[in-house]
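During data preparation, a discrete fold description was generated, as reproduced here:
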Amino acid sequence: MSLPTVAIVGRPNVGKSSLLNTLAGRRISIVDATPGVTRDRVSTPVEIGSGFIELVDTGGMGIEDVDDLTDEVEDQIASGVTEAALILFMVDAREGVAPLDSHVARLLRKQEKPVILLANKVDMMNTTGEVGELHSLGFGAPMLISATHSRGIGDLLDEIERRLGKDLGQSAPPEMMKLAIVGKRNAGKSTFINSLVGHDRVIVSDTPGTTRDSVDVTCELHGQTFMLIDTAGVRKRGKITGDIEFYAHHRAMRSIRRADVVALMIDASLPISQVDKQLAGLIAEQFKPVVLVVNKWDLAKDKTTGEDYVEYFEKTMPELRYAPVSLTTSTEGYNVRGTIKLAAQLFDQANTRVPTAELNTHIEEIVAMRGPSHKAGTKLPKILYASQIGTAPPTIVCFVNDVRSFDQTYQRFLVNQLRDRLPFNEIPIRLLLRKRRQVPKKTQDQLDADE
């Protein structure tokens, strides 16, 4: 059962993103003084009293977007309002009723949906300012809040719970695979998501940097629910300008860390860039399962083959040589669903656990084939036993008699051999080496004491 949606709407710079972050208890939306920062709908589950809602932050109504995306932003707002069970209409208490506030109010009255009017930026609860004239908007007395300072937030939560009543979600959303779509600007990430969900859930434009926030989109495919994370296009650090772009880049990096699987989107019409390589390195460092998605395949299929791309990736991004490759054309929906199916397989591999006995059998076979080099001044190297101590990523600890004999070259060999033999052959494996603890022999006095 899906959660009821509560949408935050209003003109630019009234504090909508700050409210989302406050109610969620963490920074999700980018907050900046520049009007029009939020373009796409940004959503997150939030606990309200005894239940849950899906809280949605929308762009500022009436903003003239600097990249000529005004119509697309307005479409996203309209979709958010249409899908909402309850609307939080936010205004700036210090400025009274602005012309755009009246415009928003007229649009909301046509929706005939329950609305809570919020007068934000009330830094002192006894401040009246221009609050009195807000009654003219037609939604009754406003609730006085300060999203930045969390004033009035408890009363707001109580009012949301009262308004939704039995429609409030009774359980937290289930755990699902989180798939982050990352890549350079204009690689086709947003088009990929829209193609999958069947409508314009996120804004698509040829303008670089269209996506700013990381946008979570819940989807269902073949009876399985999962979350797509659309991220801002990544560019070289030296070319990042301004706070908005900095935070967009930061959220894209954070999306990789919180994802279960990553789809690294490569533009088939361009050669592998330094940014692509940097992303590959970050994904490998985080031990994230990854699908290498070659998008815009229609522009390259007559010039090369999928097999050529596999070899190309092994040379340019060797740290991800185990990752599967998916050829897609997002604009036509070609192999988009196949990519999701592949990501789901990696998710299952990452959560697989191998019995200790089976693991040690493979370790013995690998060592028999090629053991670590015996270095001068060290003990004859031995792997005494191994155990899988974690999943996502599969984490294997090998207890050895002398860690110094197991250099990086042998560790890579060992991991590659394990990947070939174990049921997670397309994902990263974390290998840990531990020296077996020596149990000290008991003295005669201790033995006599035991008796």
Summary: The chain is about 35% helix and 20% strand. Confidence is low (pLDDT under 50) at residues 30-39, 65-70, 202-212, 240-244. The longest strand covers residues 383-390.
